[in-house]
Amino acid sequence: MMKVILRQNVETLGDIGDIVTVKPGYARNFLIPRQLAYVATPGAIKALDTEKAQYAVKMEKTKMAAEHMAAQLAELQITIPMQVGEEGRLFGSVTNQMIAQELELRGFKVDRRNVMIEEQIKTLGIFEVHIRLHTEIIAPLKVWVIAQD
Fold this sequence. Notes:
This protein is α+β, with helices and mostly antiparallel strands. It folds into 2 domains: 2-62, Ribosomal protein L9, N-terminal domain (Ribosomal Protein L9, domain 1), CATH 3.40.5; 68-147, Roll (Ribosomal Protein L9, domain 2). The chain has helices spanning 24-31, 42-75, 96-105; strands spanning 2-6, 19-22, 37-39, 77-82, 89-94, 115-116, 121-123, 125-132, 138-147. The strands form 3 sheets. The chain has a 4-stranded mixed sheet with strand order 4-9-8-6. Strand 8 (125-132) and strand 9 (138-147) form a beta hairpin.
């Protein structure tokens, strides 16, 4: 077994800065070449403390920016025009890509994978979706789906 220090969050192993024990082949062939981890030597463990301090400052800045953006998104309402068939049913459904594009037009850079739609939107109406801005911050967003002229 081999001890490594994680440089990034690895879903099955742990978070940044964790010292974990893995098989040597997994470390040599996967974690270290992809720069997900490095070998836990005494010098590296000392360097880890400074890295953790830098990471904490960086994460605090991104969290503050995400909180600011969440406050702006909570007040925002977007409208998505869609083609409508009989009984107010949409041709297709509103996707997270459509919502991300609409947000980008309004000056918010959001990755489509961070737009969380609970249930598929296939009818006209007002819906609430959630935008993941940070690991701890999820902002609500009102989406109006209207008939396209």
